[in-house]
């Protein structure tokens, strides 16, 4: 949530980009990242976000703590499940070797044994095999149950994040994406206006310049001054339109006598 406003690629959309400059061009420079960070709207938006973060820490602390505790429990359960699965894999080799040895011995000794004795030894072999299969089934059941728990927990996390995002926009009163979009557009337009007023025919990002003899060619501060001079209040987020169901209910409530007909 702290990185709500990422720097947009303003440089790629600078009004005066060109494939190459010729000798008649007057070249200027403007730092898009600096302008984004210091645009009045972005400064105000970040201040509101900081305030929201402080207020939300207390508001969502209990729910956040419960989710953290649940996550720790799930991680511990997964670790135990993985350890038990590894032990069972090792046990599998031992059980298979034991069963093979007993089956071979029974086949070898069967001609000298009575049918009752053969059946008894077969039952023991089957019981040993069944016991191991039960262990495998138990692990598989635990894995399936853990998968359901993990899926349910992920849904809780998603719902919690959505709740915070919704609360954030509601408290801030503006749409971060829309604000950033308008800021980029205004920066580009202001760069163009300032550049034209100073006679520049090309404007690049400072990152593209290996050397600039004239420091006055950097119009970043002039652009920022123009942005501040023309700054307007941070645009508020439009209220969400009522849902269709709500409209229908409102219409029904408004005309109860018609519904009775």
From TrEMBL:
It comes from the Bacteria. Residues 53-123 form a coiled coil. Belongs to the Skp family. Residues 230-261 are annotated as: Disordered. This is Membrane protein. The keyword Signal applies. Pfam families: OmpH (PF03938). Keywords: Coiled coil, Signal. GO terms for molecular function: unfolded protein binding. GO terms for biological process: protein stabilization. Residues 1-23 form the signal peptide. Residues 234-261 have a biased composition (Basic and acidic residues).
């Amino acid at each position: 949530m702290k990185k709500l406003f990422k720097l947009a690629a303003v440089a790629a959309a600078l009004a005066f980009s060109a494939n190459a400059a010729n000798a008649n061009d007057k070249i200027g420079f403007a730092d898009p990242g600096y302008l984004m960070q210091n645009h009045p709207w972005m400064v105000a938006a970040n201040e509101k976000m900081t305030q929201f973060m402080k207020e939300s820490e207390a508001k969502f602390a209990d729910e956040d703590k419960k989710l953290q505790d649940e996550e720790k429990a799930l991680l511990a359960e997964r670790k135990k499940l993985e350890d038990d699965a590894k032990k069972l894999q090792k046990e599998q080799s031992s059980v298979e070797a034991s069963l093979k040895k007993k089956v071979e011995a029974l086949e070898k000794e069967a001609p000298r044994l009575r049918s009752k004795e053969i059946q008894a030894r077969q039952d023991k072999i089957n019981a040993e095999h069944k016991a191991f299969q039960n262990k495998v089934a138990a692990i598989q059941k635990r894995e399936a149950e853990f998968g359901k728990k993990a899926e349910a927990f992920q849904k809780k996390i998603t719902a919690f994040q959505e709740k915070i995002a919704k609360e954030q926009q509601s408290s801030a009163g503006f749409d971060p994406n829309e604000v950033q979009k308008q800021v980029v557009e205004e920066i580009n337009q202001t760069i163009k206006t300032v550049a034209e007023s100073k006679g520049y025919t090309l404007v690049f990002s400072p990152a593209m310049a290996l050397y600039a003899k004239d420091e006055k060619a950097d119009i970043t501060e002039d652009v920022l001054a123009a942005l501040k001079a023309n700054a307007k209040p941070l645009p508020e987020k439009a209220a969400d339109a009522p849902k269709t169901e709500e409209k229908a209910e409102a219409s029904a409530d408004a005309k109860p006598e018609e519904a009775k007909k």
